[in-house]
Design a protein that fits this description.
By secondary structure, the protein is an alpha/beta fold. It contains 10 helices and 14 strands. The strands form 3 sheets. Strands 6-7-8-3-9-10 form a 6-stranded mixed beta sheet, sandwiched between helices. A 4-stranded antiparallel beta sheet has the order 2-1-4-5.
Length: about 325
Amino acid sequence: MLMRNDAPPILSVSNVSKTYEGGFAALKSIDLEIARGEIFALLGPNGAGKTTLISIICGIVNLSAGSVTVDGHDIGRDYRAARAKIGLVPQELTTDAFESVWDTVSFSRGLFGKAKDPAHVEKVLRDLSLWEKRDNKIMTLSGGMKRRVLIAKALSHEPELLFLDEPTAGVDVALRREMWEVVRKLRESGVTIILTTHYIEEAEMMADRIGVISRGALILVEEKAELMRKLGHKELTLHLMDPIGAVPAGFSDYELTLSTDGSSLTYSYDTNAERTGIASLMRRLAEEGIRFRDVSTKQSTLEEIFVNLVEERA
C-alpha cells in the first residue's frame, strides 16, 4: 500500500531543529519523508528525540528551524488543516476515567469540528474490539483496553496519518501481538502509521521502513529488508567432532570464536562481501585435521544492527 514513486509524501519534514533555552539541541536538522500508506518505525534510545519530533509534527512543540507539511499543509501556517490529518496516540495512558468508552471517543471527534457520526464511531470501536465495552467507564478497563481506547480516540476524526508513541509499552507479549494485528488492519484501511518503539521486534515484524535517531540526529533511514541486507552479518557455527583447546595458529585472518567447552567454532562474516571465505576456511580446517559433525548459520537481528549503529555514533 505504499504510494507510487511519483506521488507526493503524506508527511515532509525538512531541516527541522529544536533547541531549548540553555542551548540543549533536542533535534538537529532532521529531514524525513513518509510515503502514503506505509508503516514507518522510528527507533532510538531514551532521550534520542523521538517524542520531540512527533510533538513538533503534531504541533504540540514549536520547532526552532525548518518546516513540516502534512498532506501539503504547513503545520505552522495552516495548523488546523494539518492537525486534522493527524491522529496521535500518546505514550501515557491519559483518559477521562469516569467517561464511557462511547462518550470519550465521540467527544474526541467533536474536538476536531467533525459532525456526529455514530456509524463511524461504531466501526472504530468494532475494529478495535471495543464494541462490547462501549458503555463501560474507562476506569474499569484493563491497561490494554485503555490503550485501545486511546487509538480509538485518535481515529475518531478520520485522520490519514497516525502516530503511535510506544504503543505497546508496559503490555504483555500476547497483548502486544494483538496490537500489531490492529496496526496492520489500520494500514490495510489506508491509514499511514508512524510508530516509535523500544521493542526492536515490533519494528522487525511490522515496519516497511526504519529510521534510527540518536542524540537528536536521524542517523539512518532505510527499507527494513535493505537495512538488514546492508548491515547484517551471518555467523557460521561449526560443531566439531572432537573438542579443541584453542583456535589453531594461522587462522588470525578469520573472525573465529571458540566456545568455552571447545566443541564449536563460530565464524562471523559479511553477507555482502564478494567472498565469504567459508570455502577456504573449511578447507584449511580439514588440512589441520579438524572435523565437524554439523553446521548452523545465524543472521544478525535488527536489534544487533540497531545497537551497533547507536554505539558507533556514541
